[in-house]
Amino acid sequence: MTISVTKKDRVIFWFYGSLKKIESKVLALSSGFLLGRIVHEVSVPYRDFFGIILGLFSVSDRPANYLTWLSVVLLGVIPLLSYIFTRLYRRRQYDRVFASLVQKHKAPSIARFNAMSWGSALSLQTCPELHRGWSVSQVKLDHNPKRFSMPKEYVQAYQDYFKKYYKKKRFFDDTKKIMLTQNPIAFSDSPTLRLETQETLYSQTLFYLDNVAVLTSKRDELISKLLDELRVLFPHTLCLHAVVVTKDDKVLITKRSPKVAYFPGTWSCSVEEQLSIEDIRNGTPDTVMLKWFERLLQEELGLCSETYNKDNLRILSVFLESDVLNISICGHAILDINSAELNRIIEGLPRTDYEFSEWRFITHRELLNELFHPTRLYHPTSGYRMLMALIRRYGEPKVASEFFSR
Question: Among 104, 5, 96, 114, which Cα is nearest to 383's?
Fold first, then answer.
């Protein structure tokens, strides 16, 4: 496939984005105006059908009826144009374009897997409309309470591991975790993202991290089955890796506390939160994603629901942290407060979790520079999140053009 971003691509994307922004408003305004005109003409006494039509559309003695004609034209043309440009946009398959563009930025261990990635993070399923993402209401979760069963080949080794590290790794608090059981699938004409999950144990995820993920051949075998057969055959902790953007278009980055278990002292773009049993118990298949996202914002940043619009909580992709065999979700949240307000909240309000010790706010232009020339030591998935955040902010053609220029 030719990987180029032409002027035609940019024009198509501009029309597509513009139509998506105005479509609902123009259709509502036009249909409301036309309905009002019809009601007015029908209410005139003793007027027959022909008289109503003349009253609506005759411009010889009513120049204002040009607006009626305009409303009718808009009601027909806008949906047609939206359909055409949506089809043209989706046909471009930008996930494949980016899969080729970022090839040299993939970790050597996953270079042979053909999917959009950055570093060791490998896309499993991106939203068909990359720059928009799924709304939280479009994500459904089907949970099976059956627990992950350790394969026979690992049963004895796992038991020995559990005993050996019982105190050191705190297996006396061997809590339940949530894992995916299937590599999810989504299509442009069937936009719902369905996540199939089951329970596993903290000790099982650590066993695979310490004993299986370190074996290159075994890790590659599990990744291949994940991509080819869509089966998840390893325990993991499903985690939401969220990029947080303030009202004044600043991106939050945080430095992870030295006390956290994974990658202490590294910088994240922006925060992470594991899916919990409580999220599932307290919600329905249609609301688990929302509850999960809301809990992340509350526990990590001290934010209440008044500080953001639920429609601005988006899911951009499901991806694999290939080096540790963990599956995560890339989320994106645009807040209704600016960076100064968020800074005051983080500084002043008590939070349930204190998983980061420092934080900064950077522009998307600075984010692009950090992606190519990092000035900090970042969490392994931060580069992937930066890429997805830039696509969300600017759209695929512009970001692809930036990648070509660099």
Answer: 104
Least confident of 14-18, 322-326, 343-347: 14-18
Higher pLDDT, 244 or 16: 244
Give the span between the Cα atoms of 114 and 106, in whole angstroms.
10
Domains of the chain, CATH where assigned: 7-91 (no CATH), 94-405 (3.90.79.10)
Region of residue 302 (phi > 0: left; psi between -120 and 50: alpha; otherwise: beta): left
| pTM higher than the cut 0.85 | no
Which tokens in the block code for residue 53? 């039509």
Task: Identify whether the C-beta of residue 195 lies closer than 8 Å to the C-beta of residue 317.
Answer: no
Residue-wise pLDDT for 82-137, tens only, equals 888 887 777 776 767 777 778 888 888 888 888 889 999 999 999 988 888 999 99
The half-sphere exposure of 400 on its side-chain side, counting CA atoms within 13 A, is 24
CA distance 103 to 99: 6
SS3 assignment, position 223: helix
Which is more confident, 116 or 338? 338
Q: Which two tokens stand for residue 297?
A: 């914002």
Distance CA 396, CA 14 (A): 11
Q: Tokens 């050996």 correspond to what residue? A: 164
350/306 Cα distance (integer angstroms): 17
Among the listed residues 175, 169, 241, 240, the one whose alpha carbon sits nearest the alpha carbon of residue 209: 169
| d(C-alpha 74, C-alpha 81), whole Å | 10
Do the Cβ atoms of 184 and 318 come closer than 8 Å? yes
Packing angle of the helix pair 382-394, 396-405 (nearest 10 deg)? 120
Chain position carrying tokens 């989504």: 186
Res 1: pLDDT = 43
pLDDT attached to residue 351 = 54
CA distance to 110, 181, 394, per residue, from 231 (Å): 18, 6, 34
191-237 tens-digit pLDDT: 789 999 999 999 999 999 999 999 999 999 999 999 999 999 999 99
Distance separating alpha carbons of residues 177 and 84, to the nearest angstrom = 44
Question: Token digits for 9?
Answer: 């691509």
